[in-house]
Amino acid sequence: MARTSLLSLLLFPLLLAGCSAQEDIRSPPSVLKPDRPDTRYISGGSDFQLECEAEGKPQPTYKWWRDEQPVEITDKVSVDAQTGLLSITNYNSYEHDGEYMCIASNEFKNPSGPPNTASSFSPIIKLLEARMNINSGEDKKLTGTEYSYFMIPCSYEGQAVVADVSINWFQGSRTNQLKEFDNDRIYVDTDGNLHFTYLKSSDRSKPTEKYRCGIGSTQVSMIVLSNGNELAVTEVLNPTPRKPILKYDNSGVRVRRFTTATLECLFGGYDPDPSQPHVPMTEWLGKDYRPIVPGGKYQISEDTRRLTITNIQEEDEGDYYCKGKNSVGETDLNTVTLDVTSEPLWEPEGAPADTTVPEGENAIFNCNARSTIDETPPQSPIWYINSEQTGSHTDPSKYLISADKKRLTVLSVRKATDILCVQCKVVNEEGTTWGDGCLNVILGIDITYQPPEKQEIVYGDTIDLTVRATTDPSIKTLNYEWLFDNETYVTTPPYAIMGQDRYTYINTSLLNNDEYKSVAGLYTCEIAHNFQRKAVNVEVVLVDKPVVVPVTASAGFPMWIIALIVGILFLIIIIIIIICVICRKKQEGDYNVDKKETGAGLDPKKELMEKGFDDYSRPDPADFEYGDKPRRELPYDEDAPLVGEDTKSLGEYSEDEEARFFNEDGSFIGQYHKKDPTRPPPPPNESNI
Ligand SMILES: *[C@@H]1O[C@H](CO)[C@@H](O)[C@H](O)[C@H]1NC(C)=O
Ligand SMILES: *[C@@H]1O[C@H](CO)[C@@H](O)[C@H](O)[C@H]1NC(C)=O
Fold first, then answer.
1. Which of 79-83, 390-394, 446-450, 652-656 has the least mean pLDDT?
2. Does residue 126 sit in the same domain as residue 137?
3. Does residue 507 have its Cβ closer than 6 Å to ligand 2?
4. pLDDT tens, residue by residue, 8-48
5. Same domain for 320 and 393?
6. Residue 557 above 50 pLDDT?
7. What predicted TM-score, i.e. pTM, was given to this entire model?
8. 265 shares its domain with 292
C-alpha cells in the first residue's frame, strides 16, 4: 500500500503537467446584444448600423441574417465579422426592410479531426423604412341634426409605417387644427374618429373648412390630410332633454402583454339644464362590477370616456363595464371586453436553456410555449442546430426530437464534436418567439485513483481512503465529501489523516479499542462539481474481533467487578468492626445506658413519649459512674456532663463537640452532653464509625 501511494506521488506532478499543457476550455457563444426583439423605423435614405455582441471561448465571430437568409453584402451593406457591426448606407425599404438576426459562431479546433462550430442567434430586430403612404379618399357631404349625436370617421387608404402616429382634426387646411372641443362635447377616439356628443348648428362647415383628419408623425415630420367632410346641421327648435345612449365603444380591443390598454365608451345625450353637465358622464366598473378607483394600474381620463390600464398582463383580460349618466337618466351597464394577446409565451422551464453536460451524458433542450388565454395555441416548434433548420439531414443517432417537437435531446455528448447551440421557433397568430440555448460539454469526473473496494484489516493495519479525480480544466474546484455511518464529513472521515496529494488513510495502531471498532463499515466518497457527481465506495471489515489490547486494558476493565470488590471489602470491614465491638463489650461487662436508666427507676421510653425531644429529663447524676474523675456541678438546665468510658460504644458518635445517645434499638435517649474538656479528644476516625 505504501508503495502504491509513493508511486502515485511521483506520477502526480507528471499528470498535472500533462493536463496544463492541453488545457482546453471551451464555451459556446452567448449573444449579449441585441438583448430583446425590437422594431426600428429608419428614415429613407439615411445610413443605419446595428450592433451585435457575443461572448464565448474562443471569441465568436459574426454574421447577419435577413429573413432567415444571409444578408447580401453589397456596396451598400457590409458586415464586420470581428465586431459584429452591420452597416447599411442609403436605407431603402425595398432593399433593406426585413427581420434581422445576428449569428455568433465560434470554432473549436480539434487536434485530430475536423473543427467543431457552435452558432447562436440574437433576438430579431425588424427594420422598416419610416414612411406614410396615405391616399386621401373622396370628399363627402354629411348631414346631422342639432342636439343629436354625430360622428365623422377618419378614413384613409394606405399605411403609416412610423414609430409614432397621431391623429388630429383640421378644418380646411393643415394650419387650422381643431383645438376647441367645447367642454368635451367633441371627442376624438383612439382610432381617430371625430364624435359630437350632440351637434350644434355652429358645427356646420363652411365650404372652405371641410373637416379632415390628419395622420401625423414627428419621426418623419409629416402630416397627411384625409378626405374633406362637409357637414350640414339641421336645426331643431325647442330641444328636449335626451337620456344618455351608448354611441361608441372599443370592446374587443386586442392589447399585447406589457403594453397599455385604453378602453373607451362614448355616450350621446343632451341636457338643456344649464346647472347640469351638458354631456353625459361615464362611470367605469371593473371585472368584479365594482367602480374603478383611479390610481396605480388604472387611470380615467378627465372627460371620463377612457379607462387606461398599464402594464397589461394575462389576468387583465376580461369584461369591463361603462355606464352613461346625465340628469335625465342613466344607461344600463355596457360591456367592454379586453383581449390580451401575445406571441407565444414560454411555459415555466419551457425555453431552451444553456446547459453544461459532462461527456457521455445526454443534453436536453425544451421548447414549450403557449398562447395567452382563449387564443389559438402555437404551431409545433421548429428546431435549428447551430442556426441550421433540422430535417431529414439531421443525424438521428445524435439528435432526438420528441413527437410533439417540444424536446430535443443530444445523445451521449462529446467535447470534441458536440459543443453547439440549438434554436427553436414557435409561431402563433400574434407573432414568433425564438428560443436559443447552448450546450457546453466538459470532460467528466475521472477517478484516477481509488482504494480497494473491500479492505479486511486487523488492528495495526492502515486503511487506505485515498481518492483522486480529475475533470475539465474549466472546473476550478472539485469537492470531495465523505459519507460514513449516516454522517457527512467535508474533507476526511473520522480518524483519517490526509497527507500529500490527497493520500488519505486511517492508522489503526493510533486508535484505542472503541475507536478501532468504530472504523468498520461502508465509506462513500462523493466527488462533485456543479455539473456532475461521482461516488467511490470503500467497505472496511475488521477481521480480528476487537480484543482487550494490553495498552488500553485499564479503560476496558469492567466497572461492575470493581464495584463488587469494593462491596465485599466493605462488608468484611463491617463484620470485623462488629466482632471487635462485641469482644470489647464482653471484656467491660454489661454496660448499657438503657439498663442503667432502667436501673435508676426511670423509664426512658415512657419519658420520651411524654416529653418528646424538647424537654430533657435528667437522671440523677448519682446513678452514673464517674470513675475517678471529679464531678462538676452545672446549672440545672445545662446538659449533664455525661462522660463515660464508653464514648466508643455503638450508636454513639461525637460531632462538633457533642455526642448523642441512642438506645441499641436506635431511639434517642434524650441526653445531650458536653464532652469533658479535660479529656483528650478521641482519635478522629473513631468518632465517625
Ligand atoms: C440516517 O439519518 C437520518 C436522519 O438523520 C435518519 O432518518 C435515518 O434513519 C438514518 N439512517 C440510518 C441507517 O441510521
Ligand atoms: C501508524 O502509527 C504507528 C504508531 O504511531 C507508527 O509507528 C506507524 O509508522 C504509523 N503507520 C503509518 C503508516 O503511518
1. 652-656
2. no
3. yes
4. 444 444 444 444 445 788 889 999 999 888 999 999 899 99
5. no
6. yes
7. 0.64
8. yes
Cell numbers representing residue 273 in the block: 339644464
- The three-class DSSP label of residue 623 is helix
The widest CA-to-CA distance across the chain, in whole angstroms, is 162
For the CA of 495, the nearest ligand: 2
* Residue 140 CB partners (closer than 8 Å, separation 6+): 227, 228, 229, 230
Q: Looking at the domain assignment, is residue 604 inside a domain?
A: no
pLDDT confidence bin for 249, thresholds 50/70/90 = very high
Report CA(484)–ligand 1 centroid distance (Å).
11
**Do residues 398 and 386 touch, judged by C-beta distance below 8 A?**
no
Q: Is the dihedral of CA 545, 550, 551, 555 positive or negative?
A: positive
User: Grid coordinates representing 167?
Assistant: 391623429
User: Which candidate, 315, 306, 313, 308, places its Cα nearest to that of 288?
Assistant: 315
The secondary structure element, H or E, covering residue 658 is strand 658-662
Q: What is the pLDDT of residues 564-611, one digit of tens each?
A: 888 888 888 888 888 877 777 666 554 444 444 444 555 545 544 554
Pocket mutation for ligand 2, best pick of 4, 458, 510, 549 (most atoms within 8 Å of C-beta): 510
User: 305 with 244, same domain?
Assistant: yes
Could you tell me if the CB of 276 is within 6 A of ligand 2? no
CATH code of residue 233: 2.60.40.10
Q: How confident is the model at residue 133 (pLDDT cuts 50, 70, 90)?
A: confident
In the reported structure, the alpha carbon of residue 480 is separated from the centroid of ligand 1 by a whole-number distance in angstroms of 21
| pLDDT one-digit tens code per residue, 634-651 | 344 444 344 444 444 444
Cβ within 8 Å of residue 639, ≥6 positions away: 616, 671, 672, 673, 674
> All 3 cell numbers of residue 354?
444553456
- Cα 511 to middle of ligand 1, angstroms: 26
The CB of 509 under 6 Å from ligand 2? The reply is yes
684 Cβ contact list (under 8 Å, min separation 6)? none
Dist. CA 339–CA 333, nearest whole Å: 19
